[in-house]
Structure formats: structure tokens, C-alpha cells
Amino acid sequence: MAEKLAPEKRHSFVHGGKEVFEWDQTIEEVNLYIPLPPGVPKNLFYCKIQSSHMEVGIKGNPPYLNHKLQSPVKTDSSFWTLEDGTMHLTLQKRNKGLTWSSPILGQGTLDPLAADTEQKRLMLQRFQEENPGFDFSQAQFNGNCPDPHSFMGGISQ
């Protein structure tokens, strides 16, 4: 049932007409998908994930991305892989249930409607996690959706 509440599509951050990255999130993590330039050997790519900062690039060149993260992450369970021409970063949220408006602070922030949709989906994921025998995939909210991170005392980490 949890699969029904998984992200349906990725958000795209485009700068200067070129896609910089795509991203999605769950109640526990944020995933970034960065397209890799063709012809560069895989062993030249690097990624450094810190609690509140990330750096991505090709060794010997200035970083492609070098930014502060929207919110802190758990570095011991965040990681990156190279898959089919894409660098995939999995950032484990330090504050489970917190709705991120963008992975990078101040870059590609979601519009209010998309942010509200994300918050509703994450709230349903929380309900699903707390009530495993029930299916919340068709549930809807009327009016404002509460914050999944802090609703009714918050999420136990």
C-alpha cells in the first residue's frame, strides 16, 4: 500500500533552459537525479554530502553543484550512485516528515500548489506508516493539510 503513496513524478529544476536536476521526496528521504555529461569516465565524478551542504562535480574541475541543502540530512545514511547516465543522490532527512520545498536552499523552490500537494502526500505516508493495516492512498484533505513532521506531537525519530 505504501507504493501507492510514492511520488508520482519528479520535480525538475531548469536553469538557462537546461535541466540541472530532477528530485522527489518521501517522508524519510529526498532523491536527486543529476544527468551526467556523456563521455566522462565514471571514476572522475564525485559527490560530497555533508549535514547541510552538498558538492557534486568532476575531479579537476570546479564543482557543478556546490550548495547549502534545504534542511539537514543524516550523513551516515545518505549516499550517491551512478546509474544509466545519472548521478542519484539519496539524502536521508534528519527531520523525518519535514516537507522540503527544494533540495537546494533557494534554488528551484516549488510553487505553492506543488508544495501543498507534496505536504498532503507526505501526511498520507505518515498515516500509512502509523496505521499499517489501512490504505490511505485515496484519502483527501479538505482545506489546509497539517505539517506531517509536527502534527499531533510530531514523528518519533
TrEMBL record:
CDD domains: p23_NUDC_like. GO terms for cellular component: cytoplasm. InterPro entries: CS_dom, HSP20-like_chaperone, NudC_fam. Pfam families: CS. It comes from the Eukaryota. Residues 16-104 form the CS domain. GO terms for molecular function: unfolded protein binding. One of its GO terms (biological process) is protein folding. This is NudC domain-containing protein 2. It comes from Zostera marina.
